[in-house]
Amino acid sequence: MGLKILTEHINVPGINTFETYRKMGGYRSVEKALKTMTPDEVVDEVKKSGLRGRGGAGFPTGMKWSFLAKPEGKPRYLVCNADESEPGTFKDRVLMEKIPHALIEGMITSSYALGARTSYIYIRGELMFVLRILEKAIAEAYAAGFLGENILGSGYSLDLHVHPGGGAYICGEETALLESLEGKRGNPRNKPPFPAVQGLYACPTVVNNVESIATVPWIVNNTGEEYAKIGVGRSTGTKLISAGGHLNKPGVYEIELGLPVEEFLFSDEYCGGIWKGRQFKAVVAGGSSVPILPAQLFLKTAEGTPRLMTYESLSEGGFVSGTMLGSGGFIAMDDTTCIVRNTWNFSRFYHHESCGQCSPCREGTGWMEKILHRIEHGHGHMHDIDLLVNVSKQIEGNTICPLGDAAAWPVASAVRHFREEFEWHVKHPDKATAPGAVYRGAEDLAFA
């Protein structure tokens, strides 16, 4: 069984309470950091660990912290991005719901390192029950002297607040999140300046994901060098994967980075293989915004090298034959899946969630959804397939925030790898629109 850092105690009865969490060794990192380390020493440990942001981008956390502008009479802020809304991604929700003190401990230790005296957890508005869990846990931490004035007699003080968002996907983008936190419409900002220089209330701000922050206590307790020994290459440590779709054992799994993808997908310790013994067709490895891969390219690269669950291995081959680890939202699809319908569903989501600030995203996501609707419902033309690719290229890289890329990549990759399925929908609309119809290559048509 692989090493568990975040989920080792997640099933201990009462672990959501301060008392039980403390008995299991919780809050030791706060004591160690505040009593024996300077803020810069905590930052150095995180840099040594090689921890990369677990929200999707994979940017080194310690490096991000080091970009924070030096104090010039302005407060500094740490904001936790708990606006988890990528389709297929639900790992942070489970972590906050089951073991909320892990996040709070990470917020205290990280805030100390960054010199923040007020910090925020920005949580998706639909997760009000999780917000209540966090508020209760924060109250317990205040009562125990781990939040508030002069924590543990160290002279360091911190106030921690939970703020619910309005339930918009775009507010997962860090600058849109900050706008929303300030009480404005959640539109992304132009960058630069980056939040490290001009973030919340125009002050230096770090925005980190839930999983990233919850990992910091282990690094402080065990050192960055020990964390860096876990994993492979620049993919260090463990990673939470929310596995869904056509699996025998869907759920949230903590893996050591470097685990072979075949072991993750088929072993009993993790996903247990494709449900009902069906054939593995495709996978979205890191949330709906990353390129979809056919089964054969997920298990092995185009050169025949076995894939690993790492940032580097999954992206090997670029977008021609690779994908991304992203947020860890793993969606497996069996041979009953219609790729056209799946792509249309993703496209509907991104069109609905586009904030409309950029013309390429506002108009392009709408065009892609309309074209996909046409093809899926038997009214498509052959030139529509190339038009889809063309529209996706007009969006990619031409928007203020990454939502445009997130909308374009699933469409472009679906056409790239499953073009004949799109063509079959156009050539045989009556068959393709029959209830339960699925394209199966040479078999042409089958019913689930």
UniProtKB/TrEMBL annotation:
Keywords: 4Fe-4S, Flavoprotein, FMN, Iron, Iron-sulfur, Metal-binding, NAD, Oxidoreductase, Quinone, Translocase. Its cofactor is FMN; [4Fe-4S] cluster. Pfam families: Complex1_51K, NADH_4Fe-4S. Belongs to the complex I 51 kDa subunit family. InterPro entries: NADH-UbQ_OxRdtase_51kDa_CS, NADH-UbQ_OxRdtase_suF, Nuo51_FMN-bd, Nuo51_FMN-bd_sf, Nuop51_4Fe4S-bd, Nuop51_4Fe4S-bd_sf. Residues 340-385 form the NADH-ubiquinone oxidoreductase 51kDa subunit iron-sulphur binding domain. NDH-1 shuttles electrons from NADH, via FMN and iron-sulfur (Fe-S) centers, to quinones in the respiratory chain. This is NADH-quinone oxidoreductase subunit F. SMART domains: NADH_4Fe-4S. GO terms for molecular function: 4 iron, 4 sulfur cluster binding; FMN binding; metal ion binding; NAD binding; NADH dehydrogenase (ubiquinone) activity; oxidoreductase activity; quinone binding. It is an enzyme of class 7 (translocase). Transmembrane segments: none annotated. It catalyses: a quinone + NADH + 5 H(+)(in) = a quinol + NAD(+) + 4 H(+)(out). Its EC number is 7.1.1.-. NCBIfam families: nuoF_fam, PRK13596.1.
